[in-house]
Each structure stands twice: as C-alpha cells, then as structure tokens.
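ARCHIVE CARD
Drawer: 12
Card no.: 0347
Subject: one protein chain, sequence and derived structure
Cross-reference: see card 0346
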Amino acid sequence: MTALRVADLAVRTRHQTLVEGVSLTVGVGERVGLIGESGSGKSLTALSVLGLLPDNLTATGTVDVAGERDLLARPERRLARLRGSLVSMIFQEPMTALDPLVRVGAQVAEVVTLHDDGVGRARSAAARRRAVALLTEVGLPDPAAAARAYPHQLSGGQRQRVMIAMALANDPALLVADEPTTALDVTVQAQVLDLMGELVARRGTGLLFITHDLAVVSRVCERVLVMKDGTIVEQGTVEDVFRSPRHEYTRRLLDASDLTPRRRAAHATNAEPEPEAAPAPAPGPPPPSASRPSHGATAAAGAAPSTPCATCPWRSPTASASASSASRAPARRRSCGCSPGSTRRRRAPSRSPASPSPGPVPAAGASPGRAPSRAYAASCSSCSRTRRDRSTRA
C-alpha cells in the first residue's frame, strides 16, 4: 500500500493552468523530496493533496492517501476529518499557522481532541497529557512550561517543533512538509531535520518534503522530484539525480546551489563530504606583512615607499631636504594621511597665538610655557610611517 498516489493532477484558475500532469507516489515510510524554484507549483501540489486550495483555484485528477481514494471528490466535511488523522501538513512559517492568542498546549490538545472519540473532562485531561508527551517527544527542554506559553514566547526552532508535534499527534499515514526550515538558522535547521527524519522513520510515516534547498533534500529524502513551470521534469533517487542529472533545468539547479561536485557526490550517498583542497596561491609577489599598517590604497597594495613622501608633514629635516630636491624633477607626488579624502585624518594641533607659523607643533617640553595636552597619532598613506605627537596649548 502506498501512502500517497497522485495521478494527472492539474490546478487551474479561470484563465490559466498553474500545475499540469503531475503524477507521483510516496510509499509507506518513504521520504520523497519535491524541489524547484519559487513559483514552480510545489506548494500548490501540496495544498491540492490536503484540499486546501483557495476558492479561486480548482484541482482535477486523482489523489489517494493510504487507501482513501479520490480525495479531490470528497466533500469538505469528510476532508476535515481526514486532515490531521490520515494526512498532516507542516507549514513554512509557524507564526502564521499557530493562533497567537491560544497557549501552545491547548493548540496541540485541540488536534488530539478533534480526532478522539472520548467525551467530557476525561477527554480533555487525556488530551492535555498527550500534548505534554508530544512536546517532550519533539525535544522541547521544558515541555510543561512550553505548553503554558504563547507562540510568541518561543523561539523559531521551538515553534517549528510544536508544529511537528501537532502534525504527528494522531500518527498520520502521510506528512507533507512545505519548506519547514527556511526561516531557521543552520544549526537549528539541522536539529529540526534530524528530529523530523527520526520521527517519521519510527512511525513509518510517508513524507513529502517540499524545498528549494538541495542540501536539505539530500539530508532527509531518498527520492527526489524536480518541478518546473507546474510539471515534473525529472525524478529518481537522490544519488542518481545528484550524480548524473538528465534534464538541463536540474543541472542548472545543481550549478546554482552551494554544492560543489565533490559535495554533491557525498550528499548523494549521505556520506560526510571530504574537505575541499586549499586553493592554489595567486601568482605574483606575496602580500604585504600583516604587521604593516594599512592606510590608503598604496599601503593596501603593498607598494609603500621606503622613504617619506614629499608632502608628509612629519618627515625628518634630512628627508625634507631630499624630498624638496626631488620635487624639482618630474615625479609623482603622493598625498599623505592628513590630506582630504584620506582614510586617516590628522587632527590639527592647537597653537599659541604668539606662534602663528604653520607646521607641526613640537613635542611637549620642547619650548617653555606650553603644557602637554592629548596625544594623537597620524600616518602617511604613502610612506606608511606613523608619528605620535602631542598637541600643546598655552
């Protein structure tokens, strides 16, 4: 017996066909991935299986779930009884799927009571105990406290665990997961994927996993179906599709993913990928030493001259004379770190009114009557030299 069989599924609006000719199967306990770009029809296919399409869309074809035949022809009242007990769905964003005004435990218990034949207070008490047990099973650290919390008081990963608990509360034959880990960070995503795989394997639940992330498919699924423009263009085992894709669209998906060919082969067999070889060093001279300060484009390129530039405001007298002589010859003048547009600007020191001459202020103690003030450092972007002066004030 198969958990899901879809034959010639089509989804249409009044004037447009969105999904056409989709046929797929999911065996009992089998994990099948459905991949494709955004807008390819993946979510419409999933919503058709559960009879949750909007009113402006119509679905035709055949959908059988665990012995229940032709779900598309069933009335809404019958479909409501089948959802949650025969087939369940995990949605992409739990904050829109959970009721923000109802405590988490009450929402999980409601799923249990909807498909329970018990009555009265005993039924409600059993549902509450079952809710706490489910929250424990999905790995929440304090399930009793989580049951009393509201959805906004839980983290994104915890909310997604609550969604998994609700979906598996009545041991359905088929679980449909529509991008369940897209909004999670990488670490939490791996934890949720491992939890989901463990739970469906333990229960023998068929899984239809919808995603655009090829690495996630390789981690969770055994078979993969590739969807483009509302049709299935390629299907097979994860190993076959990842190693030797036949359709051009599948090859483009693999090329656009972050999986290198070596990692594709490792993911196809669920093996640990070997570390990539270090890239060969670029040709040319080695980069400048890390100890050299990087100020300006010249220093970043590692081409700083060994002598101060002609405009360096704190060069030595000897260097100043040499620079003055060299400035008469046609040469390229370099800007220093205190010039406009430089990455480092030199703060002009305060001068006494009695000393109107421009230039750097001598260090503290060089002339009487001046008290030391704050220290500052400036550097020349061309010669990469740094001088630490002290501004003075009268």
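Annotation on reverse: The chain has a mean pLDDT of 76. Residues 2-96+172-257 form a domain with the Rossmann fold fold (CATH 3.40.50.300).
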